[in-house]
Design goal:
By secondary structure, the chain is α+β, with helices and mostly antiparallel strands. It is built from five helices and four strands; from the N terminus they run ββββααααα. Strands 1-2-3-4 form a four-stranded antiparallel beta sheet. The two termini are 33 Å apart.
Length: 150
Amino acid sequence: MSRYTIAAHPPYHHCVVGFDPPLGTFFAQVYRAPTARRQPRLVRWLGTEVHELPTLTALTAALAPYATVPDDLHQRLAHEQTAIGFRPNFGTRLLQRLRDTAPQHVDNVITVCDHTRTMTSTSSDRTQVGSGADADDARGDATGRRRGSC
């Protein structure tokens, strides 16, 4: 994966652009200027999905409100895309296959999980949790999700 830092249009500070072979997309990260109290803050991240920005034209258009890709970098990115190309890894292939083969099923599972999570959070407010391993399972993990649920 390549990463190049370029200047951004105000009020933004800088952008990081590049080509991500496993996703087969160009990407851009736009950062706001740092302050005395904070590091630069990520405000926009483009090119996080498979083939989201498959061409330099798509990258340039998506990045237009934030920055302009210099001509020399434009040529370098074009060369990298041609030389490296789309190189999906196992995770990319698996995710793409799941999305292609069962989009309706995945959407239904997400809807059911969201509905179940809503129902369990309202009923757990009224239930006290004991102690021990069962209580740990009932409380869930650090993300707030209950173990064994969606």
